[in-house]
Amino acid sequence: MHRLVLLIVAALLLGSSPVCWAQEARSLVATTHHSDTAPQTAEASVPAAPAVYHVAEVMPAFPGGTEAFGKFLRDKLQYPQEALSKSLSGKVYVRFVVDERGHIIDPQVVKGLGAGLDQEALRLVRIMPWWTPGLVGGQPVKVSYTLPIVFRALE
């Protein structure tokens, strides 16, 4: 490892690197120099969207906090008939991204129960009000969030 670092530093100092990188506003350009041909340029697109954080200084939150989330679930949840007939209970984990404005993007079930509960969990996430976005350095950012939704069949 140490030897590799020394080789890279030596190559940079001597200017003998065969690949030179230049960063432009929206793309990364690599120019390869060959002694017997003209320089060739290859462009690789750099994503324009900011990174998605998995942890933020201030995590995204349902408006009104945990109590408001519980009330939302009680008011909106429609227990699927198939799950009721099987007395199926448990947690469905839904992952989504909360963007800089608090919108829910790309919800998907990462661990489900079946019997219609997965679809109901996705429906609930899709009709949620906008969340309070996550913050990094005081600025709103996109944050990946995994939400467990608990289903309890009352017998």
From TrEMBL:
Alphabetical UniProt keywords: Cell inner membrane, Cell membrane, Membrane, Protein transport, Signal, Transmembrane, Transmembrane helix, Transport
Pfam families: TonB_C
Keyword set includes Transferase: no
Top-level taxon of origin: Bacteria
Residue ranges of every copy of the TonB C-terminal domain listed in the record: 64-155
InterPro entries recorded: TonB-dependent_transducer (IPR051045), TonB/TolA_C (IPR006260), TonB_C (IPR037682)
SUPFAM superfamilies: TolA/TonB C-terminal domain
Family under the similarity heading: Belongs to the TonB family.
Protein name: TonB C-terminal domain-containing protein
Species this protein is from: Hymenobacter koreensis
